[in-house]
Specification:
Length: 152
């Protein structure tokens, strides 16, 4: 990058020198310390912070350890990989085959039943669940790892 250096004597410009410089913008990024397998939860021992030149990094890099801990790898990730948002995901709260409590409620009425999850789901997502009593498939919203809710 070109720039000018102005030399002043007694507060007055004396000479201007043109120069070139290579600029680095260093930032902390989260880098893997060891391989992380697909769908494996990311732990503190798996990652570290490293200073790198931002000019050579993509826009979706992760710069804070708390943004990756507890999440999981979407695919196999090798050692010394700069973690990006497209490489990690929040693990599902419920998984296909899990047993959950189905809570159906309306004004003044609450009915519960045991159900089996048919699709993985995150908190707040609508997923397919089979009511084990009636054998009917319904869509319910994930509340936690043990409960889904149907509002009618």
């Amino acid at each position: 990058m070109p720039f000018s250096v102005i030399i002043k004597v007694n507060g007055r410009p004396y000479k201007t020198i043109r120069a070139w410089a290579r600029l680095e913008i260093l930032t902390h990024v989260v880098v893997t310390q060891r391989p992380i397998g697909r769908y494996r939860p990311i732990k503190i021992a798996d990652v570290t912070l490293k200073k790198m030149d931002a000019a050579h990094l993509s826009d979706n890099i992760i710069s804070d350890l708390k943004d990756v801990l507890g999440k999981r790898a979407k695919r196999n990730i090798s050692v010394n990989t700069v973690l990006r948002t497209d490489l990690i995901e929040v693990p599902p709260l419920v998984k296909r085959g899990d047993m959950v409590l189905i809570v159906a409620r309306s004004r003044g009425l609450k009915v519960t039943a045991l159900g089996q999850v048919r699709t993985n789901g995150l908190r707040g997502e609508k997923i397919r669940v089979v009511n084990l009593d009636s054998k009917k498939s319904i869509f319910a919203r994930v509340v936690d790892a043990n409960t889904v809710i149907v509002e009618f």
